[in-house]
Amino acid sequence: MENFDFPSFAKYEVILGEEFNKFASCGPCILGVDEAGRGPVLGPMVYGLAIVKEKNQKVLKELEVDDSKALTEKKREKIFSEMNNDDQIKKCLTYRLHVISPRMISCRMLMDKKGVLNDISHSSCIDLIQAALDAGINVKVVYVDTVGPKDKYQKKLQSIFKNISIVVSEKADSKYPIVSAASIAAKVTRDNLISNWNYIEGDEYSTKIIGSGYPGDMKTRQYLDDNCDKVFGFTSLVRFSWDTAETFLQKKCYKVNWDPYNVNKAKEKPGTKKRPAVTILNFFKKVAKKE
């Protein structure tokens, strides 16, 4: 029997700074973790880890990093471009990004468990820190923008990384420059991914106006309204698990009788010893033909 492997959408897409694997022999490093795209109904969530050599922290000031939300799009792109293309900066500052697809988010959140988005965020942060350690990077301290109660989150991280100083803080992206750098890398990457989204459903979707991707944006809501297939729902850009998306699915899609284990059928025949076999017909409901 072949080994089972998760589908590609159930894994992180990893994006590395060019010098990431060369930071193993450069002395103590400071790490920052932040994300972009937690709230939108469209697009991936990108978790970012920025790494700066302790002795070269001044590069963050020279780059004029700040909370990505406080910077203009042009300024964010300029900073991220310098992080990728300036040879001197690349030797001092690098990054690792985990791209969490809308489908991965939806699959996890549609499970019968509360707080899944926080679990995804925590796991991403843990995996990023562990990746730095696995690469041989000498991690002195990690600054993390909190997800959920900060004390509980810090305790969780500290229990895993016992020999590293962990600082979890609200608004860490505006307090700690290294977290700002992570925020910028994540934000610019997410924006670029959405602008150049690879629609597995067909190129015709690439010309659609999608707005900001946030549920309250009328352009985004119009996109969802105009592009909701009656059978398949939305494209891979959309997080099906968001309430906004679910509202359109309920309103515009065909109704499906979902009883995968035939629980309802078994209730109809209380004397039977086993549930009836499941067939494709179990998942649909007859609708009277229109005259």
Number of domains: 3
Average pLDDT works out at: 88
Helix content: 25-40%
Task: Write down the overall geometry.
Answer: elongated
Order of helices and strands: EEEHHHEHHEHEHHHHH
Give the amount of beta strand, in percent.
Answer: 5-15%
Number of strands: 6
Q: Helix/strand/pairing class, anyone?
A: alpha/beta
CATH homologous superfamily caption of the largest domain: Ribonuclease H-like superfamily/Ribonuclease H
**Low-pLDDT segments:** none
Task: Describe this protein's structure.
- This protein has 291 residues and is an alpha/beta fold.
- It folds into three domains: 8-195, Ribonuclease H-like superfamily/Ribonuclease H (Nucleotidyltransferase, domain 5, 2-Layer Sandwich), CATH 3.30.420; 207-252, Arc Repressor Mutant, subunit A, CATH 1.10.10; 255-291, no CATH class.
- It is 38% helix and 14% strand.
- It has eleven helices and six strands.
- The chain has helices spanning 58-63, 73-85, 87-92, 102-109, 116-134, 150-160, 172-175, 177-195, 218-226, 243-252, 263-268, and strands spanning 13-16, 29-36, 45-53, 93-100, 139-145, 165-169.
- A six-stranded mixed β-sheet has the order 1-4-3-2-5-6, sandwiched between helices.
- A hairpin with an 8-residue loop joins strand 2 and strand 3 (45-53).
- Helix 2 (73-85) crosses helix 8 (177-195).
- The longest helix has 19 residues, at 116-134.
- The model has no long low-confidence stretch (mean pLDDT 88).
